[in-house]
Amino acid sequence: MSQDVKTGKTLSPATPWTDRGVPGIHVPDEQQTLKATFTEPTIECPECHALVTRTAMSFNAYVCPQCDEHLRMKARDRLNWFFDQVQAELGQEFAAKDPLGFVDSKPYPERMAEAQKKTGETEALVVMQGLLKGIPLLACAFEFDFMGGSMGTVVGDRFVQAAERAIELNQPLVCFAASGGARMQEGMLSLMQMARTSAAIQKMKDAGLPYLVVLTHPVYGGVTASLAMLGDVHLAEPKAMIGFAGKRVIEQTVREKLEEPFQRAEYLLDHGVIDQIVHRHALRDTVYRIVAKLMNLP
Ligand SMILES: [Zn+2]
């Protein structure tokens, strides 16, 4: 007595071949349902709309491999990419308060909690200490996704602490700026950070230590009017928008149409506002060379 290959029923020799099962691969029922396969998350380039995997983007320092557009980098990614070795993170003891009890469409603490959840950062400035090609230095980066990288008291605290630590350790400071300006929710206290950070930079200059600014897309308002324009050297990434008031506001004030590349890094370079536009792939080398030169290192 043989068995049917499919049904497992006992077959008598009299069963016609047309009734016998066809031998095949047995697939258990639970495997027959379709399952989603793992696909790598992709990022769409805002310029050429190419879909590039997140891994490829991060390996390329978030520069589009198709069209060379410089995508925004998260502050933490930026610093981890910039340093060969991160030794410490500074300023995490500063936490934002709500000194004015500010409420717009929602209360400030609620807005803050949302930004923290969205970015995984506690504030809009990340400060790290580490080595760049063997040179010990401090660097800070603005997290633009954290309430538009706006400068509140904690950003001021962290920046001032970074500058003071730089003086203490006799190390240069590099700032990657990307901000919409002052933080409205902290009112006057936010504007005071412009003076505080400017004073801290002056202390660095008095100590003879270099302070470099790398302007990334975009830098506006109170940050442009203070720490982002007080560097010894101003580098910018290609096509970064840099200004004090936004283009639309100026157009409405002067009643004139302002054409591209108004407020772009290339325009500012032509007009002597910044020193150099540096491709992101060349940025680490450029900063290293400038710092080594200014610090009189071999
Ligand atoms: Zn692209």
From TrEMBL:
Per its record, what are the GO molecular function terms?
A: acetyl-CoA carboxylase activity; ATP binding; carboxyl- or carbamoyltransferase activity; zinc ion binding
What reaction gets catalysed by this protein? N(6)-carboxybiotinyl-L-lysyl-[protein] + acetyl-CoA = N(6)-biotinyl-L-lysyl-[protein] + malonyl-CoA
Residue ranges for the region (Disordered) are 1-25
Broad EC category? transferase
As cofactor, the record names: Zn(2+)
Instruction: Report the cofactor remark.
Output: Binds 1 zinc ion per subunit.
Which InterPro entries does its entry note? AcCoA_carboxyl_beta (IPR034733), Acetyl_CoA_COase_Trfase_b_su (IPR000438), ClpP/crotonase-like_dom_sf (IPR029045), COA_CT_N (IPR011762)
Protein's UniProt keywords contain Acetylation: no
Q: Where is the CoA carboxyltransferase N-terminal domain?
A: 41-298
Q: Write down any Gene Ontology CC term.
A: acetate CoA-transferase complex
What EC number(s) is this enzyme filed under? 2.1.3.15
Q: Any idea where this protein resides?
A: Cytoplasm
Q: Tell me, which GO biological process terms does this entry list?
A: fatty acid biosynthetic process; malonyl-CoA biosynthetic process
Q: Which residues bind Zn(2+)?
A: C45, C48, C64, C67
Q: Name one Pfam family in it.
A: Carboxyl_trans
- Where do Polar residues bias regions lie? 1-15
Principal subcellular localization: cytoplasm
List, alphabetically, the PROSITE patterns matched: COA_CT_NTER
Xref: HAMAP family = AcetylCoA_CT_beta
Give the protein family: Belongs to the AccD/PCCB family.
Full protein name: Acetyl-coenzyme A carboxylase carboxyl transferase subunit beta
Q: Organism, per UniProt?
A: Acinetobacter cumulans
